[in-house]
Write a structure and sequence with these properties.
The chain is an alpha/beta fold. The protein contains 16 helices and nine strands.
């Protein structure tokens, strides 16, 4: 193969040290045979040796990998892409418009999201192959906590072509996992109360069907020791789909009904039962809550027996059914004796830091595809895994591996991809709901 110099071209690359402009030679084939060989071997019509030497020839944007990572991080930590644009200009002295910022953030987010999906498929294979549990003599004397919840996300609804401004609320599911060994505990000298701080935790986020989300949860649990710890505890608000997931994937775990949600439902039911009479419903609700904290759920059911068939106006909770359905998750005295948490504060705060701080600002609407990419990055950042996970993975894929396909860029391409994924998600959701209703039983 014979190459010849075509011209010298300037190129400006955005780096963490600012804009850098350099000149480089462009080489092209000297004859048709050389052109054929170059295309068959490299799938390109020209070569720029300097770009190849500094690993800048395959980059999807005119910026270094390190700068792409900083752009993506700014994109998820700022309240908006416009705010991120200002932050990059202030700290790095570079101008990256909000459209490019959005594309880079989505590009990096797609890499991480697709890796999460690969790990979810791998977790399913591990479970199906029966290689999940380790020998008894290798089990660690530790507790693995799983907390999961859903929160609404305002999404652009492209199905109705006649109304492009139409939108709908979709549930984004979030799970956090941590271990007892990763919790720092101390006694407050002023109050004498025991305080806790979770020092190591990991989130996973997914906007889509329960059927797909559960494999992401399993992968998350495996990464944090599931199969190698003696005790697994799942704390949730009582949604039926969580109980189903527990029965399918975490058979040996202890599920605990979040005490805060339980009390919240008791007060809501009491308010409706006593027609919003505070002198009657507050003492009644306080009494029921104390009984439940003492593990006296059977006595509470007897107390509720006369009202179990009532439909109370303004109340979506049937407290009798709610408590009966979760009777295996209400032994709070025993849980406290074992040192278990009985509240889901970690997942509630996670919904704020992972989802709400970035994606639920005033006037924001997201298409599902790109929301997944942003949430994948937010989950890693809030898990403290940006330096140890995101940076090395992105550098490996962009510098040492094949460059992934670029994101769909036109509105029609995004809408087409989203419509296809929505159709697949709806089909999976329908299959998952057969015989297993996912709505919270109240």
């Amino acid at each position: 193969m014979i190459l010849k110099t075509q011209n010298i071209v300037k190129r400006t690359v955005i780096t963490t040290a600012g804009d850098i402009t350099y000149k480089r030679y462009t080489l092209i084939p000297a004859d048709k045979e050389s052109a054929r060989i170059l295309w068959e071997s490299e799938k390109r019509k020209s070569i720029i040796p300097l770009d190849s030497a500094i690993q800048a020839d395959n980059l999807p944007f005119r910026m270094t990998v390190n700068m792409m990572l900083e752009v993506a991080r700014a994109g998820i930590l700022s309240k908006s892409y416009q705010e991120a644009e200002e932050a990059l200009k202030h700290y790095y002295g570079v101008t990256v418009n909000d459209d490019t910022l959005r594309e880079v953030t989505n590009y990096i987010g797609k890499l991480i999201y697709m890796e999460d999906c690969r790990l979810a498929r791998e977790a399913r294979y591990i479970l199906d192959s029966g290689n999940l549990l380790c020998p008894d003599d290798q089990i660690e004397d530790d507790v693995l906590y799983l907390m999961t919840d859903g929160a609404a996300l305002n999404t652009v609804h492209h199905v109705n072509k006649r109304d492009p401004n139409d939108s709908s609320w979709k549930e984004n599911k979030l799970c956090v996992v941590f271990r007892k060994s990763g919790i720092h505990s101390w006694t407050d000298p002023r109050t004498g109360e025991t305080c806790h701080k979770i020092e190591k935790k990991e989130f996973i986020s997914y906007t889509g069907s329960i059927e797909e989300f559960k494999w992401h949860v399993l992968a998350l649990a495996i990464r944090n020791g599931y199969g190698h710890v003696r005790q697994v505890v799942i704390i949730s608000d009582g949604a039926a789909w969580i109980r189903t997931m527990k029965a399918e994937l975490f058979v040996d775990s202890q599920q605990i009904l979040d005490l805060f949600h339980l009390k919240e439902n008791v007060y809501e039911y009491g308010k409706a039962l006593w027609n919003n009479n505070q002198k009657q419903y507050k003492p009644w609700a306080a009494k029921v809550c104390k009984m439940l904290e003492r593990g006296e759920w059977k006595q509470v059911l007897k107390l509720l027996e006369p009202h179990k068939s009532k439909e109370l106006e303004g109340c979506a909770v049937n407290l009798y059914t709610y408590i009966y359905n979760h009777r295996d998750s209400l032994d709070y005295p025993e849980y406290r004796k074992k040192g278990f948490f009985v509240g889901s504060g970690a997942i509630e705060s996670g919904n704020k830091t992972v989802l709400q701080d970035r994606l639920k600002r005033a006037g924001m609407r997201w298409n599902i595809v790109t929301a997944r990419y942003v949430l994948a990055l937010k989950a890693k950042e809030q898990s403290g895994l940006w330096e140890s996970c995101v940076i090395p993975f992105v550098r490996k894929n962009l510098l040492n591996g094949p460059v992934p396909d670029k994101l769909p860029r036109g509105k029609k391409e995004i809408e087409s991809l989203e419509a296809k994924e929505l159709e697949q998600a709806a089909k999976a959701e329908k299959e998952a709901r057969k015989g297993n209703p996912s709505k919270q039983e109240k």
